[in-house]
């Protein structure tokens, strides 16, 4: 493990989350010397790329995460004048991309022999951790911001047997609290500040270029909350670039909700650090975050890749969520729709060129947040169970 700021190095078996010397974030250096031909004929899960995962192969805890659909969106792409693909992360075992990071994270927890794992979460991380902890037989503690977690995610965390605690405060405060507990050695922290999480999530980058026949798209667009995923995907595509598997690199483009946009604000002002948003607010509760722990890594990904960041309103998010569902048949939760809303905005203001090849990462399943989905629709019409009544409704004169 290496500090991204001062370069200090640590062993892979040390339980630390930030640099002891300077306090900055850590990342794992991973440079296997392999040919991409070894991936041929392997099962389509993220462990297809196991040589790039820094864990003991004999200890892997997996629910066959990864290998998610890579859907060409002809209808929406034509409308926007671009070549559009959507990577459907809602098809992972617990319905979000977090499963990739948790598979590696829990495998590391098994390797280290820890008994208790924990996280703070806006919902998906807790749902995923609860499932993987159950599979590995670990005690699991999760802290959720009270009243701000979508119902599907809460149900998952509870049902998989996690000890769920509701915190009077937002995600940032919950994360600060559980991090302090982890530093006391009371549990192994599996938020994305743990660099092993990002090692799993970088496989999204691997799969995108593999899906495109070992080519980089022009651009990857994704929602940004705690900022781990954009950092992870950039790490993934860079590793495949360094290994000589692809020639080009994508422009990393992060989308945030207007009310929770510390990264987008920093990029707009050309800054290398963020100003914390103290009261983040958005309907996309998954990305309702004001103090992203991986901000520095995310800014580096955006600047190094010549990418950008944009903000979208809650209305734009809800419109995009409906548009994707009704023109392409892909149901995603609000945070995920931020990537589509951001794309639409960037096409409209000319930042995305006509004909660009764009991949949007849609991060979580529609049913994670059933309330928002139902509230966006009119209630079903009630009818008598008769052909007459039905005909009257579907063919009114
Ligand atoms: N999309 C969804 C559906 C998420 O759940 C999250 C993060 C993100 C995007 C943003 O990813 O944090 O890596 O920038 N959810 C976390 C959680 C914070 O606790 O489930 P990020």
Note the topology:
Elements: E1 2-3, E2 26-27, E3 70-72, H1 74-80, E4 83-88, H2 98-112, E5 116-120, H3 124-136, E6 139-145, H4 151-159, E7 163-167, H5 171-183, E8 188-189, H6 195-201, H7 203-211, E9 219-223, H8 228-242, E10 251-257, H9 262-268, H10 295-304, E11 308-312, H11 314-328, H12 334-348, E12 357-362, H13 370-375, H14 387-394
Parallel strand pairs: 4-12, 5-6, 5-8, 6-7, 9-10, 9-12, 10-11
Antiparallel strand pairs: 1-2, 3-4
Helix pairs in contact: 2-3, 2-6, 3-4, 6-8, 7-8, 8-10, 9-10, 11-12
Bound molecules: ligand F0G.
Ligand F0G binds next to helix 3, helix 8 and helix 12.
Give the tags.
397 residues; alpha/beta; Rossmann fold; six-stranded mixed beta sheet; four-stranded parallel beta sheet; 14 helices; 14% strand; globular; binds ligand F0G
Q: Would you kindly provide a brief summary of this structure?
A:
The protein is of the alpha/beta class and 397 residues long. It contains 14 helices and twelve strands.
């Amino acid at each position: 493990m290496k500090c991204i700021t001062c370069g200090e190095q640590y062993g892979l078996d040390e339980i630390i989350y930030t640099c002891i010397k300077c306090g900055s974030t850590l990342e794992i250096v991973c440079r296997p010397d392999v040919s991409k031909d070894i991936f041929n004929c392997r099962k389509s899960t993220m462990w297809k790329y196991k040589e790039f995962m820094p864990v003991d192969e004999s200890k892997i805890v997996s629910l066959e995460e990864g290998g998610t659909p890579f859907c060409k969106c002809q209808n929406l792409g034509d409308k926007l004048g671009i070549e559009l693909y959507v990577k459907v992360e809602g098809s992972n075992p617990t319905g979000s991309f977090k499963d990739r990071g948790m598979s590696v994270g829990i495998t590391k927890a098994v390797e280290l022999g820890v008994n208790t794992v924990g996280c703070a979460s806006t919902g998906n991380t807790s749902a995923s951790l609860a499932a993987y902890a159950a599979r590995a037989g670990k005690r699991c503690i999760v802290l959720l911001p009270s009243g701000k977690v979508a119902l599907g995610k809460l149900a998952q965390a509870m049902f998989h047997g996690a000890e769920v605690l509701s915190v009077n405060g937002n995600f940032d405060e919950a994360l600060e609290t559980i991090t302090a507990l982890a530093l006391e050695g009371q549990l192994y922290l599996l938020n994305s500040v743990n660099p092993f999480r990002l090692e799993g999530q970088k496989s999204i980058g691997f799969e995108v270029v593999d899906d495109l026949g070992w080519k980089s798209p022009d651009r990857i667009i994704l929602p940004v909350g705690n900022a781990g995923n954009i950092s992870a995907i950039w790490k993934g595509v860079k590793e495949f670039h360094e290994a000589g598997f692809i020639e080009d690199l994508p422009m990393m483009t992060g989308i945030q909700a207007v009310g929770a946009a510390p990264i987008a604000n920093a990029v707009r002002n050309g800054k290398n650090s963020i100003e914390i948003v103290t009261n983040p607010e958005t309907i996309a509760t998954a990305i309702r975050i004001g103090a992203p722990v991986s901000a520095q890594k995310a800014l580096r990904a955006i600047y190094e890749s010549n990418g950008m960041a944009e903000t979208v309103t809650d209305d734009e998010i809800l419109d995009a969520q409906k548009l994707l569902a009704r023109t392409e048949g892909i149901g995603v939760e609000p945070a995920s729709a931020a990537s589509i809303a951001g794309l639409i905005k960037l096409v409209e203001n000319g930042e995305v060129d006509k004909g660009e090849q764009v991949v949007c990462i849609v991060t979580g399943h529609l049913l994670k947040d059933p309330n928002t989905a139902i509230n966006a629709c009119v209630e079903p019409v009630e009818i008598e169970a008769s052909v007459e009544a039905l005909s009257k409704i579907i063919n009114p004169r």
